[in-house]
Specification:
Number of strands: 3
Largest sheet: 3 strands, mixed
Number of domains: 1
Order of helices and strands: EHHEEH
Length: about 80
């Protein structure tokens, strides 16, 4: 996320707001410390972002996933005992 100091934000406000409306949020900083985050009104809130399970039903894990390739891998780590 881009950070702009107060002076930069004031001089480029129209462009920055246009970009934020298109989904590019930014931070306005004062003395190098972030003060305000500017983002589109229809952007999802942090608690609305779905992270876990976003590929549910789209990926198939094979039944032999945990043992796949064991015949080739085991001899590399075990001395046969």
């Amino acid at each position: 996320m881009r950070v702009y100091n107060m002076h930069e934000a004031k001089t480029q406000l129209s462009r920055l707001v246009r970009e934020a409306a298109l989904g590019e949020p930014f931070v306005i900083a004062r003395a190098g410390r972030g003060v305000v985050k500017v983002m589109a009104l229809d952007a999802p809130e942090a608690q609305q972002v779905k992270r876990f399970g976003f590929l549910a039903g789209q990926i198939q894990v094979p039944e032999d996933f945990n043992t796949r390739g064991a015949d080739e891998i085991d001899p590399l780590f075990w001395d046969g005992e």
